[in-house]
Amino acid sequence: MKIAVIGAGAIGGLIAGYLKLKSQGVSLIGHADTVKAIKEKGLEISGVRGDSSIKIDIATKLNYTPDLVILCTKTQDIESAVKENLMFIKNAVIVTTQNGVQADNIVAKYIPEENIISSIVMFGSTYLEPGKIVHNFEGSWIIGRVSGDNDEKVVEISKTLGQAFPVILSEDMKGMKYLKIFVNANNCIPAILGVSMQEAFSDIEISRISVAIWKEGMNIVQKAGINLVSLPDFGVEKITKLTSLPGIEAAKIFSMIMVNLSKEPLYGSILQSIKRKRSSEIDYINGEFVRLAESCGIEAPLNKKLTEMVHVVERSNAFFSKEDLLDSVK
Fold it and tell me: What is the pTM of this model?
């Protein structure tokens, strides 16, 4: 199987590198600076599986027709990535990996729906610089159809991806994808402060904001009639139990969980984009709560404020202080 991974950031680089180590025919599509670095030094991955330097074909655009495309750009970059490579990928199987719930809808404007397989990434990695990635923690790769039942094509792709990561087939991707928004919703905090997740959430006051994000989110999905479905190692009950506790008690538990996520500093996808001077996926995470709330005729003031603050950081490249953040959301 000829595999093209489009997007050479933290997740795309990790996926391409590990599939290549399993002798898959993999090529990587990335920005010019990443292409240059990997051609010169190889793709360098460190972290929980040790250190690897991997020689892999990389270019800024496709020049052949792959059987499988793993789309690893940010959601806001999907459309341009698909359009730039459309002549080569229009008949390929496309696996989306993005956070939020909009990726498949965007791809479906250009690719037949039967060729789109959705996925949720539960492993974590950090983009250090072009061609250098840290694999922070292990996790499964969940795949399935967002609409319709899983078929032989999904099973075939799961076997290929399973060579690099534990793969789980899901019959309810929608419910899982909405729960994954909760998992990612706190990435906005370190992005606003410009610090690692461990540093941000070692502060109990900051962790209280995160619990409040979840409380507001739970109210919204309940009003929208969305049934959340548990993820591997992250059940729905983790959120329902935590949000039912008194604020300080919940914040202490949340803080302990987040501080121990990874031995290496973990920055989250939103801050990683900002550090690369690129727009983040905030509108598809916390912004998705805001959009869903508006569709139900209710408000999401906390998630709306945090989304706005991330956009301020994106525009100014200047971070807020802890005091600024607490004052803005109190």
Answer: 0.92
